[in-house]
Write a structure and sequence with these properties.
One of its GO terms (molecular function) is catalase activity. With 699 residues, the chain is α/β, with parallel strands linked by helices. It has three domains: 75-185 and 207-378, Catalase HpII,  Chain A, domain 1; 446-525, Catalase, four-helical domain (Hemocyanin, N-terminal domain), CATH 1.20.1370.20; 535-685, 3-Layer(aba) Sandwich (Rossmann fold), CATH 3.40.50.880. The chain has helices spanning 6-13, 52-62, 158-165, 181-189, 194-201, 248-257, 261-271, 326-331, 350-366, 446-454, 457-472, 477-490, 492-502, 546-558, 605-612, 615-626, 638-643, 674-685; strands at residues 75-84, 104-112, 127-135, 138-145, 215-216, 221-224, 230-239, 277-286, 312-321, 344-345, 535-539, 562-567, 586-587, 598-601, 631-634, 657-659, 662-665. The strands form two sheets. Strands 1, 2, 3, 4, 5, 6, 7, 8, 9 and 10 form a ten-stranded antiparallel sheet that branches. A seven-stranded mixed sheet has the order 13-12-11-14-15-17-16, sandwiched between helices. It is globular. Bound molecules: CIS-heme D hydroxychlorin gamma-spirolactone 17R, 18S (HDE). CIS-heme D hydroxychlorin gamma-spirolactone 17R, 18S binds at residues 69-72, 75, 109, 111, 128, 130, 143-145, 150, 155, 158, 218, 300, 335, 351, 354-355, 358-359, 362-363. CIS-heme D hydroxychlorin gamma-spirolactone 17R, 18S is lined by residues 69-72, 75, 109, 111, 128, 130, 143-145, 150, 155, 158, 218, 300, 335, 351, 354-355, 358-359, 362-363.
Length: 699
């Protein structure tokens, strides 16, 4: 396989600068001797206008901010590559990056939607999953989300929708939350939102990690072959680590304990060489089958069930490099749904059509002019030659007298390309010019119910709890009632349970409920049971069994799991009977169980005694237990589990006991059996012990 993915970095290297070994200068390159005092008339006198250094420094600072994205303002990104597995898609498309097997450089930006740039990562929200492929044929952007459908069917409603979900105008409250009156007022009056709102109330809105969420292109796009023949396509990203979520109580706590939780997780994993990875899959539909479904392929509030059209794996995406500068790269990257390469085209999805206008338009104000494609992160690696000239921030020095087509004075250049050009798919279109919605878009409940029917019991519980939380924050009783009315069209039991929670009357069941299911929609039913990429907290104090701990850490790390040692104070932990001192990674009081996937309490009577008397330690275990996470202890560490209210059966001898996600043994030191670590890793692979009773959450 050719490794083509360095091409972008070679280009970026020409823009990367490093202050190492340099001296301070002005923007003009004049060396600066003094930057702590401004030039003034006398040491207590007024500052002088002629202090060009101070003026330049302050002026630049005054202009450091640019408008944040109107949606998806909060994000995190990374570089990597995409490689197609083989050329099997060449029957359908001339897009080389999908068929060549070369490593294609990419930049991916993940985001939340509603919050401002500085908002917390773990809010209940959709996540953006936008990929820029720097292909040899030009840049292709797949600007997707982590949910396969959308709130509205026509882009003309997007400003209304976003105004409703954003903080309310009088006081700009609440930040990054849909749990307020205007959002639910919009939802309750727009039945087309119903399907997506179920996704939003599901665990999908609370990803454990950007590395552990699916991505979707949402719209139906088109692949186009060399003869101009089109095939409908839906794009899917499937994470190698599985699709996993946080629970709501955790999310709210993490928003305070570590608002950068998802951003940090992405950064840290790439720094550690644990490169996040997804598989690209496509659902292909022959154009002849356009009307073979009980929904319209052009309707972005609908998905194609995977059981009906299987997702065919076509390649892999790997993120292997963090940006050097957040602003220059993650903030200035500009995605656009109309950045297409030959072999991919649009459909008439009215949401997509509006997006094709919006993204270019928004970049003009956000990035300050028409030359943002010249910013390093946005530059294609394909050759660029246009007749576009001038404008703010022009970086190129265009030689020659001609900047028009057709010219003879410039030798006719740039000439019209012969091969490899983009050709719009030829589609016959007819109709009256009307402002109307197609009747094929009018069923809003069938797929909402399909989603609900496909959920496991615990996923349903979470959805009901989410509706109760969100509507519970709505002050207008009639909006609560109207929303419950809508839910009643999806499922009567769902409506009744939400109604009870939010103090409105449950409506009578309606006719037309169906029993169809799509098992692929249940996150808990999806494959991905591996402990890889997880983070475990190990609580220890002086006198801990460092021999047993070291053995366990080694076993965990071999399985791709990170173990952090948390101690009441910084500094190395003194060993118990034998063994060497153990460095502590974190001080216990600076961390919290919500930042980890599991907790382990090791042996060592003095260590256990200290932890039993430490409120943070006891709370840590209680909270992890109540969040249904794997909890493990060996030797005297088991006592801390008892103190923390763990009610599962605990080991009373050296035999490893793994009950309800609680792994224990009385063995310790060199005697600690490998099965202890194996059972912990198996519990981690299961993500949570969902059967564990949680009536008393929060901790
Ligand atoms: Fe976007 N969207 N969007 N959107 N969107 C933007 O573009 C818009 C929609 C998505 O990390 C904006 O550069 C309209 C669907 C992502 O930089 C803006 C409509 C999907 C990102 C915009 C939609 C998305 C954006 C704001 C309805 C999933 C972040 C800043 C017609 C398939 C990209 C910007 C990044 C960003 C408009 C609907 C995904 C204003 C008008 C559906 C991932 O142009």
């Amino acid at each position: 396989m050719t490794d083509h993915h360095d091409a972008k970095h070679e280009q970026l290297d020409r823009s990367r600068t490093d202050p190492e070994g340099t001296v301070l200068t002005t923007q003009q390159g004049v060396r600066v001797a003094h930057t702590d005092d401004s030039l003034r008339a006398g040491d207590r006198g007024p500052t002088l206008l002629e202090d060009f250094h101070a003026r330049e420094k302050i002026t630049h600072f005054d202009h450091e901010r640019i408008p944040e994205r109107v949606v998806h303002a909060r994000g995190a990104g990374a570089y990597g590559y995409f490689e197609a597995y083989d050329d099997s898609l060449s029957r359908y498309t001339t897009a080389e990056f999908l068929t060549s097997g070369e490593r294609i450089p990419v930049f991916v930006r993940f985001s939340t939607v509603a919050g401002s740039r500085g908002s917390a990562d773990t809010v209940r929200d959709v996540r953006g999953f936008a990929t820029k492929f720097y292909t040899r044929q030009g840049n292709y952007d797949l600007v997707g989300n982590n949910m396969p459908v959308f709130f509205i069917q026509d882009g003309v409603k997007f400003p209304d929708f976003v105004h409703a979900v954003k903080p309310e105008p009088p006081n700009e409250i609440p930040q990054a939350q849909s749990a307020h009156d205007t959002f639910w007022d919009f939802v309750a009056t727009q039945p087309e939102t119903t399907h997506m709102v179920l996704w939003l109330m599901s665990d999908r809105a609370l990803p454990r990690s950007y590395r552990m969420m699916q991505g979707f292109g949402v719209h139906t796009f088109r692949l186009v072959d060399a003869e101009g023949r089109g095939t409908f396509v839906k794009f899917h990203w499937t994470p190698v680590l599985g699709t996993h979520s946080l629970v709501w109580d955790e999310c709210q706590k993490i928003a305070g304990k570590d608002p950068d939780f998802n951003r940090r997780d992405l950064w840290d994993s790439i720094e550690a060489g644990q490169f996040p990875e997804w598989e690209l899959g496509v659902q292909l539909v022959d154009e002849a089958d356009e009307h073979a479904f009980d929904f319209d392929l052009l309707d972005a509030t609908k998905l194609i069930p995977e059981e009906r059209v299987p997702v065919r794996p076509v390649g892999r995406l790997v993120l292997d490099r963090n940006p050097d500068n957040f602003f220059a790269e993650t903030e200035q990257i500009a995605f656009h749904t109309a950045n297409l390469v030959p072999g991919i085209d649009f459909t008439n999805d009215p949401l997509l059509q509006a997006r094709n206008f919006s993204y270019l338009d928004t970049q003009l104000i956000r990035l300050g002019g028409p030359n943002f494609a010249q910013l390093p992160v946005n530059r294609p690696i394909a050759e660029v030659s246009t007749n576009q000239r001038d404008g703010h921030g022009q970086q190129e020095i265009h030689k020659g007298r001609t900047s028009y087509f057709r010219n003879t004075l410039g030798g006719g250049c740039p000439a019209i390309a012969e091969g490899g050009t983009f050709r719009h798919h030829t589609e016959a279109v007819s109709g009256h010019k009307i402002r109307a919605r197609s009747a094929s878009f009018l069923d809003h409940y069938r797929q909402a119910r399909l989603f609900w029917n496909s959920m496991s019991p615990v996923e349903r519980e979470h959805i009901v709890a989410a509706f109760r939380f969100e509507l519970g924050k709505v002050t207008a009783k009639e909006v609560r009632a109207r929303t419950v009315e809508r839910l009643n069209h999806v499922d009567h039991e769902l409506a009744a349970q939400v109604a009870t929670g939010v103090g409105v009357e449950a409506p009578a069941a309606v006719a037309g409920y169906h029993d169809d299911r799509s098992p692929a929609l249940s996150q808990l039913g999806r494959p991905g049971g591996s402990p890889r990429g997880r983070k475990v907290a190990l609580l220890a104090a002086d006198g801990a069994d460092t021999v047993g701990i070291r053995g366990l850490i080694e076993q965990a790390e071999a399985a791709g799991v990170t173990v952090e040692v948390l101690a009441p104070t910084d500094g190395p932990i003194a060993p118990g009977a034998d063994g060497a001192p153990l460095p502590a990674d974190r001080q216990l009081s600076t961390m919290a169980s919500v930042l980890y996937d599991a907790v382990v309490v090791p042996c060592g009577p003095p260590s256990t005694e200290t932890l039993l008397a430490d409120g943070y330690a006891v709370h840590f275990v209680t909270e992890a237990y109540k969040h249904q996470k794997p909890v493990a202890a060996f030797g005297s560490g088991v006592d801390l589990l008892r103190r923390a209210g763990v009610t599962a059966e605990l080991a009373d001898d050296v035999t490893v006991r793994a009950d309800d996600g609680v792994v224990t043994t009385t063995a310790a030191g060199a005697e600690l059996p490998g099965e202890f670590g194996t059972a912990l890793l198996a519990a981690l692979a299961g993500h949570r012990a969902w059967a564990r009773a949680t009536t008393a959450v929060p901790a």
